[in-house]
Amino acid sequence: MIKALIEIDKRARQTVQTAKDKRNEAKAEIAQEKSKVHEAYLKRANEHIEKMKQHADEETSQKQLTIEEGFRVSAASLETQFVANKEKWVNEIICRCKQI
Predict the structure, then answer these.
(1) Which branch of life, at top level (predicted)?
(2) What long-range pairs does 19-22 form, CB within 8 A, spacing at least 24?
(3) How far apart are CA 21 and CA 18, in angstroms?
């Protein structure tokens, strides 16, 4: 009878140990899967950030080109006005200086 109880206890301890081992394996698998999910999330987030950065860079470059073109147009307009009016302006300055 005692031998039978010892054998039952031994099998019960083995069953418990097996269950503990399976639990530890499951915990390790969960930790590994959690790490994979985290890495995948970070990768997607970084890809999204990179796409948004590229879009912002493209938008900024386009705006810069538009502004530069506006400056060129303004500079050309001012140059045209200067060429057309420089003698008139110089003469007006001279006349005003003579009046003083």
Answers:
(1) Bacteria
(2) none
(3) 5
Surface-to-core class of residue 84, CB atoms within 10 Å of its CB (0-12 exposed, 13-18 middle, 19+ buried) = exposed
Torsion of CA 76, 78, 79, 84, to 10 degrees: 130
Q: Is 84 helix (H, G, I), strand (E, B) or coil?
A: helix
Domain range enclosing 83: 1-100
Whether the model pTM is above 0.70: no
Output the six-digit token pair for 60. 């900024």
* Residue corresponding to tokens 């003469």: 91
Instruction: Read off the pLDDT of residues 61-88 as tens digits, 9 standing for 90 and up.
Output: 999 999 999 999 999 999 999 999 999 9
Round to whole Å and give the CA distance between 45 and 39.
Answer: 10
